[in-house]
Amino acid sequence: MIADTLRDRIRTGGPISIAAFMTEALFDPRHGFYATKDPIGAGADFITAPEISQMFGELVGLVAAQTWLDMGRPGAVKLIEMGPGRGTMMSDALRAARTVPGFMDAAEIVLIEASAALKAVQAQTLGPSGAQIRWVDRLEAVAPGPSIILGNEFLDCLPVRQAVRHQGQWHERLVGLDPQDETGEAFAFVLGPPLAGDSDLIPARLRDADDGALVELRPGDRQVIDQLAARFADQPGRALFIDYGPAQSEIGDTLQAIRAHKKQPPLEAPGTADLTARVDFESLIMAGKSAGLTCYGPEPQGAWLTGLGLEARAAALSQSQPGKRSEIARQIWRLTDKEQMGELFKLVCIDSADLPPPPGFSAG
Ligand code: SAH
C-alpha cells in the first residue's frame, strides 16, 4: 500500500515534500492512482473536456492541421500528446484533421503516457484510426523535427511543492505524520526548513507576500518549458496546453484530491484519488518568455472554443443527429459556460519563433 510505504519513508527520513507525496500517490507503478486504472469518465473519478464532447478534440485537431499548414506543410510532423488519458481527444482530433489534404500522410503520432493501464486504453481507442502510434516516456525521447504538442489536463497533475512565509522567510511545507493522531498513522502538513535555492520557483508576483501566505511551486512546469525550448530551438514547434487555474499567480493552497467526482482530504488515502493543483498560467508564461519562446494566452476555454466555431460545428452535428440536439446543447454549456468550464479552464500556446499566431487566441 502506498500509505504504508510513505509512512515508512517519513519515519526513517523525516517529512517529505508534497511533490514526493504526489509522485508516489499518482505514479507508483503498482498501486499509484494512474498506474493501475482508468479513472476518467462519467462513471469513474473525474471527467474532462474531450470526454464531454467530441467537438472539443475536433477543434483541437483543426488547429493542429492549421499549424502544419502554417509551418509550410513539412513532409513529416510529430503530433505529440502529453497525458492522453483515454485517447479520446487524439481520436477526435485525427478525424477532423484528416479533412486537411496531406496532413495525415505527414503526421507521426507520439503519445507520452506514464500509466500502463491508460496506454492500453489509448491503443484500443486509437486502433480504428489506422494511424501509426508510438509511446515514449518523455518529450526528450522524441526524435527531432517539426512538432505540434498537445496536453489537456496534463500540467495540473505535475507534482507541486508548497512554501509558507514564516518570519520573513519562505519555508517549504512538507508532509509528515500527525503527532496528535492516536494511531500515529495519519499524514499531516508540517513546516519544513527555509527554502534553500529554488526561490526563483516562487511566483514572481508573490515573492514579497506577508507572513502566513502559502504559495505553490511548480517545478514540473519549468521542466516542460526547458524541454520545449530545447526542442523548438532549431525546429518549428507549437505546444497547446489546456488546463484549469487563474490567469495571474495567486496565494493559497489549491492541492485537491478527487475520487468518484467528489473532493477528498488530499492526504487521507494516497493512491485512491486524483491529486492535482491549479496551473499558474502567469508563471508558466513568464518562464516560457524568459526561455525565448513565444507565448499566447491564457485564453479562456469558452472564448477559445466559440472563436473557433463551436456553434457552427454543433449545428452541423445536430442536423446529422437530430435526436442528440439537446445533448449537444448541454455539451456546449458545460464546455463554455462561465460557471462551468468556460472561464476556469484556459489555453496557453507556446511557440517557436517563426510561426504566425495560433487560431482562437485574442491577443499575444
Ligand atoms: N488528457 C486526458 C487525460 C487527463 S488526466 C483527458 O483530457 O481526458 C492526466 C493524464 O496525464 C493521464 O493520462 C496521466 O496518466 C498522464 N500523466 C500525468 N503525469 C504524467 C507524466 N509525468 N508523464 C506522462 N504522463 C503523465
Descriptive notes:
The chain is of the alpha/beta class. It has 13 helices and 15 strands. The strands form 3 sheets. The chain has a 7-stranded mixed beta sheet with strand order 4-3-2-5-10-15-14, sandwiched between helices. Strands 1, 6, 7, 8 and 9 form a 5-stranded antiparallel beta sheet that branches. A 3-stranded antiparallel beta sheet has the order 12-11-13. Helix 5 (54-70) crosses helix 6 and helix 12 runs antiparallel to helix 13. It is globular. 45% of the residues are buried. The model has no long low-confidence stretch (mean pLDDT 95). It binds S-adenosyl-L-homocysteine. S-adenosyl-L-homocysteine binds at residues 34, 40, 48, 50-51, 83-85, 89, 112-115, 118, 152-154, 157.
Keywords, separated by commas or semicolons:
alpha/beta, globular, 364 residues, five-stranded antiparallel beta sheet
Strand-helix topology:
Layout: H1 2-13, E1 16-17, H2 18-27, H3 33-36, H4 49-52, H5 54-70, E2 77-82, H6 88-97, H7 103-106, E3 107-112, H8 116-126, E4 133-136, E5 147-152, E6 161-166, E7 169-177, E8 187-194, E9 214-217, H9 219-232, E10 237-244, E11 256-259, E12 262-264, E13 274-276, H10 281-290, E14 294-300, H11 301-307, H12 310-320, H13 325-336, E15 345-351
Helix pairs in contact: 5-6, 12-13
This protein binds S-adenosyl-L-homocysteine.
Q: What is the N-to-C succession of helices and strands?
A: HEHHHHEHHEHEEEEEEHEEEEHEHHHE
Largest sheet: 7 strands, mixed
Share in helix: 25-40%
Low-confidence stretches: none
Strand fraction equals 15-25%
Distance between the termini: 47 Å
Oligomerization state? single chain
**Tally of helical runs:** 13
Instruction: Name the structural class.
Output: alpha/beta
Q: For the residues shown, what is the average pLDDT?
A: 95
The largest sheet has its strands arranged as 4-3-2-5-10-15-14
Shape: globular
Cofactors, ions and other ligands in the entry = S-adenosyl-L-homocysteine
Number of strands: 15
Computed over alpha carbons, the radius of gyration is 21 Å
